[in-house]
């Protein structure tokens, strides 16, 4: 069954039709801090979708940590006037440490938890830095 047959395709088109003008307005009109915050929020939403896709494969990524990490990395990267390199490095290290501590804490499923930590960190870096 195609996505268009289930209504999923139309939902995406409607979402794009609503969000495209909002996005363009934010790019041109929003002050730097607001734009960085909006971008971080979008990175968090994208990370949530990424982790849902990972869950569909049977993994159980640390979604809350991953969403927060992707948003924080994006915010550190885009905040106006910030010493980007220092903030970005600190946020990446903190996100990585949080995910790895979560993996180590799941000792009853250690083998799976390392794969899940890898999927989480991939989402954080791919969506936070992308």
What key attributes describe this structure?
130 residues, flat, 84% helix, mainly alpha
Structure description:
With 130 residues, the protein is an all-alpha fold. The chain is built from 6 helices and no strands. Helix 3 packs antiparallel against helix 4 (63-78). The longest helix has 25 residues, at 32-56. It is flat. The two termini are 32 Å apart. 29% of the residues are buried.
Secondary-structure map with pairings?
Blueprint: H1 3-6, H2 8-29, H3 32-56, H4 63-78, H5 84-105, H6 110-129
Helix pairs in contact: 3-4, 3-6, 4-5, 4-6, 5-6
Class per helix and strand makeup:
mainly alpha
Listing every helix as H and every strand as E from the N terminus to the C terminus, the arrangement reads: HHHHHH
Termini separation comes to 32 Å
Number of helices: 6
Shape: flat
Mind telling me the C-alpha Rg?
Answer: 17 Å
> What assembly state would you assign to the polypeptide chains in this entry?
single chain
How much of the sequence is in beta strands?
under 5%
State mean pLDDT (0 to 100 scale). 82
Helix percentage range: over 70%
Say how many strands there are. 0
Largest sheet: none
Low-pLDDT stretches are 1-5
Concise synopsis of the structure shown:
The protein is 84% helix and 0% strand.
